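Chain A, query sequence.
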Amino acid sequence: MKLRYAIFLVIVAALYAEAAAQRPRRQRPVADSSRVVQAYVDSLRQSFRRLDSVAAMRSAHGQQAIDGRFYRLFAPLTFYHSPAAKAMGADSASTSGDSLANAVDAALLRVYLSRPELVGGTETALRRAGSIRNDIMDEPMRQDFDITEHDDPLPDVSVYAPTQVMVKKPNFWTFGGDGNLQLLQNYVSDNWYKGGESNYSMVGDLTLTANYNNKSRVKFENKLEMKLGFQTSQDDTLHKFKTNNDMIRYTGKLGLQAKNNWYYTIQLLAYTQFTQGLKSNDEKVYSDFMSPFNLNVGLGMDYSVATKNNRLKGSVNLSALAFNFLYVGRKNLAGSYGVVGDHHTKEDFGSQVTVDLTWQITDQIKWKSRFYGYTTYKRVQMEWENTITLNIVKYISTNIFLYPRFDDGGNYDENLGYWQFKEYCSLGFSYDF
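Chain A, predicted structure.
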């Protein structure tokens, strides 16, 4: 009998081992983000069912069905101290009779043990961050809005209703300029120990610009400069007043862009003066309107100067081929300007350079500089005009004008040679537009 029972046990063990060997071994699934999220959602769903039954039970006994501790299951998963403390028996006495708290802690503990990688925060970090401000919940927040019982229906407008589209043509022209009126008074008594004479002087200048730039390749610049100044002198018995500054000058440039700031340019420069040029106690007229009149046409390259802050801007023109035309209306003045024989005109060819810059040194100081040089390789003419403006207040400024000039085609002076120089300093009104 005992032998039969032993044989039966051996046969059962063999069959069980064979079945276990034929059974396929379960492979541990590789966790990915979607499965982790799905597992967390499933655990929340199961916990919600259990808690829902607990809430229904509490409602049946007349207790509060909704408790604030539900939020711990549906907020971002945080490690709270109470589930671990209850599991280790450290906090079982405080909440042993609270079924809802025990159920919530039990659900959280299962998630902590099965999916610890989902826990993103701790209760210690939440306490360190602080609690919600109580003063916010003192008074309920109410929105102020109006309820309209009836509103007018929307107008029946066709989706394909014709509309008018206005395309505004861009304006490539810019206009500007500036003007100054400077006054100077000088009084010297008759018994002044160094001598001298009293005088009054006035200088006015106006600059107008009209520039075209299509932001593509074509540029057309126009500038008209006019200056006229008078002075009186007690020692001059022949003239009540005479000019100390007199100029009309037009500069025009037509450019076709070559590359970046370089342009192929034709430059036209024409200048004369308003009235007669006189000297004290001298009846001779040294210059007059259209005596002389200079017209210069140059073909070359032009470079536009402009810094990032626009403090320094202007242009540099280089004309390898330039034609100069000189006209003197008064025949008795023709020789003083290099016209030979019984003629009023003189023509020659050469090269020229023109540099026109404006530098806004500060908000109160501005320097306008113009350099002009022309040579026929037999004679040289150079002019360098410098005007430094100091703005005292908005419309009152001081001008310092420095003007050296060289012309070896004119009269020779024993002291200065072919050099000439003009300078003045004045105070007056200025306006930019």
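The first strand starts at residue 78 and ends at 79. The two ends are 129 Å apart (CA to CA).
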